[in-house]
Structure formats: C-alpha cells, structure tokens
Design brief:
With 288 residues, the chain is an alpha+beta fold. It folds into 2 domains: 100 residues, no CATH class; 135 residues, Nucleoside Triphosphate Pyrophosphohydrolase (Alpha-Beta Complex), CATH 3.90.79. The chain is built from 6 helices and 15 strands. The strands form 4 sheets. Strands 10, 11, 12, 13, 14 and 15 form a 6-stranded mixed β-sheet that branches. A hairpin with a 2-residue loop joins strand 5 and strand 6. The two termini are 15 Å apart.
Length: 288
C-alpha cells in the first residue's frame, strides 16, 4: 500500500546537521541543488517533476534547510518567511499528478518551513530564536533553549458495523465528498482512546477493537496521520453538526465504486494522496 507523502528515498543525513563546516562544504558543492518554491508550493519542471536550481539562486542572508543527500547530491530548501502562514488549497489540484517521491520530499520541506515561521520566538522566555542544526532546529538567543520541529499526532479512522463503514462529511469538502473521521490526539491519551473518543464525539457511536493500519506525514502544516479501524457496537448515529455536515454508513460495494470513480457511486472518494483513500482501499480489499 503506497501512502501519500512517503518514500522520498533520500538519506536525511542527520549525522551532518550539527557539523557546520560539513554543511558549508555541502552547500558550496557544485552539485548542490536548491528546491524551487513559489511561496510554499513546489515549482515543477516541464516533465512534471520538482524543479531544482543552484544555491546561487538563494537570496542574500537567507537561511537554508538541509534536506539530505540524493546519492552524492546535497539537497537544500530555502527557508521562506511567510506572513501569517498559508493553507495551500491550490496545491491539492496537482498533488495527484506529482511523483510520490517528489510529493514526499516537498512535503517535508513545506512542514519545516511552516514550523520555522511559527517558532520565531522562544516559548519559555519570549526572546527571538535562530536557526541551527542545518534547519532542523531553532535556539533561543537569550535562554539557550533548543526547539525542534514538532509533529502533531492525529487519528484518522473508520468504524465498521456489519459489513459497512462509517464516513463523514466536513463543510469545506467538495460536493459529494465523504471521508474517514479524524481528530487530534489529546494529552494523556493513547491512540486507541483518541479513536474511541473522536468517534463518540462526532458520530455518537461506541467502538472497540481498535486496530492500527498505517500512518502518513501530512504537511498542512505538520501532522502525523495515524490510520485505524474500529468495530462499532451499533449503527445508530448522533452527529455533531459543529464538526460534520453529515455522516453515513457505506458498504464495500459502495466504497469500491467510489474509489473507482464510478458514476452513481454513493460518495466522492478522498484523493489518492490522502491516507483516508488508502485506508478505504485497504478496508475494501480486506473483504475481497
């Protein structure tokens, strides 16, 4: 099962991140490449692959993020300053056509850039922070506290009941789209507990036998999506209308029709780069 935003295939080369002289050596290499970005979105070349330039294109005094090594080629991304952050809705239109390894590499760069833009100041003393570890950390200029890129865990899950699966629809979805339910893992909570709580809060159902299926880094801005399946005690729904426009049960035939894009399918499936699509494909295949 190929999961979106995974499989970049590069060596992240953590061993070099604290070695400033080694990073400088890699950056000065004629083979070093700089990821070309339009704000936070990727630029693509004529073949539809990620566009890369030389490090001579970097703006003066701009910070660099060392992404890693592709073979012997050092890869960097520019640390762009983005006012107010961006939710890149336009990128969803091209992600489906991007090579999976390109989407994974760009996704990592985007998450890091967003994190840097949200952590310009120290959470302990409030003073400014500066980049270190080749873009994989920030250090407070006053108290010296080190800050590292964070990933927020999110459970995304389907509940099953008598050969059907529960799907929900959020207000911002395109017309007809339904997907797996999801929510952030809260402090002091296990993955299994988060799955059960979210399904009860949003759909009013009780579940048991929560099983992990797969995970996905999601770069908007930086979540780890933890896909699970659970068994519902009942199919009676109490929908939280502040979270969902609608929720419904769909059988395997309906899920397969939606994943295949068939006319008359009971819902519009989530896009292939979303782990909800992979989760539904796994569930539909399990009943083959």
């Amino acid at each position: 099962m190929r999961i979106g935003f995974t499989g970049s295939g590069i060596d992240r080369a953590d061993r070099h991140r604290l070695d400033e002289s080694r990073i400088a050596e890699l950056a000065s290499s004629l083979s070093a490449r700089l990821l070309r970005l339009a704000a936070l979105d990727p630029e693509l070349d004529e073949t539809g692959r990620l566009a890369w330039g030389s490090l001579a294109e970097i703006e003066d005094e701009a910070d660099l993020i060392f992404l890693g090594l592709a073979g012997e080629t050092p890869l960097f991304a520019p640390l762009r300053r983005i006012e107010g952050g961006q939710r890149a809705w336009a990128i969803f239109g091209i992600l489906g056509s991007m090579a999976p390894e390109d989407a994974a590499l760009w996704g990592a760069a985007r998450s890091l850039i967003e994190w840097h833009n949200r952590h310009n100041f120290c959470g302990r003393c409030g003073h400014s922070t500066e980049v270190f570890r080749a873009g994989w950390g920030r250090r407070c200029t006053n108290c010296g506290l080190d800050h590292f890129p964070r990933v927020d865990p999110v459970v995304i899950m389907i509940a099953e009941h008598q050969g059907r699966v529960l799907l929900g629809r959020q207000p911002q979805y395109p017309a007809g789209r339904y997907s797996a339910l999801a929510g952030f893992v809260e402090p002091g909570e296990s993955i299994e507990e988060a799955v059960a709580r979210e399904l009860h809060e949003e759909a009013g159902i009780r579940v048991s036998n929560v099983r992990y299926v797969a995970s996905q880094p999601w770069p908007f801005p930086g979540q780890l999506m933890i896909a699970c399946v659970a068994e519902a005690d009942s199919d009676a729904l109490i929908i939280d209308r502040t979270e969902l426009d609608d929720a419904k049960w769909v059988d395997r035939e309906g899920v397969r029709a939606a994943l295949a894009g068939e006319p008359g399918a009971p819902f519009l499936a989530p896009p292939p780069f979303a782990i909800a699509h992979s989760l539904l494909a796994w569930w539909a295949g399990e009943g083959a």
